[in-house]
Specification:
Strand order of the largest sheet: 1-2-3
Helix content: under 10%
Shape: elongated
Largest sheet: 3 strands, antiparallel
Distance between the termini: 58 Å
Structural class: mainly beta
Mean pLDDT: 87
Number of strands: 3
Low-confidence stretches: none
Strand content: 25-35%
Number of helices: 0
Length: 100
């Protein structure tokens, strides 16, 4: 496991940008699969356009852990470079829609 060497980073003096280039520290990748299924049921009594739609949607279907990037502010040494949060786990939503 690679650890971040916090001593390699320092706040540049006021008025200077420092010497670390942009996008030199890569974050975590995202492995996010979403899935949605729906079924339409015709309702003949309402005419041609009458139908009921039932829908189910899964976000992060395989429930992979998605880590957020660590805080990149060197001025706050208590949490600089520490991963302390994740994105949402699997979410399921079920809906019904009535067309007439």
């Amino acid at each position: 496991m690679l650890a971040l060497d916090r001593a390699a980073y320092a706040t540049p003096p006021r008025g200077f940008f420092g010497n670390l280039g942009r996008n030199t520290q890569y974050g975590f990748g995202i492995n996010d699969w979403d899935l949605g299924v729906n079924k339409n049921f015709a309702i003949r009594k309402l005419g041609e356009g009458g139908r009921l739609q039932i829908r189910a949607e899964w976000f992060n279907f395989f429930n992979h852990t998605q880590f957020n990037n660590p805080p990149a502010t060197v001025n706050v040494p208590s949490n600089f470079g520490i991963v302390n949060s994740t994105r949402d786990p699997r979410i399921l939503q079920v809906a019904g829609k009535f067309y007439w």
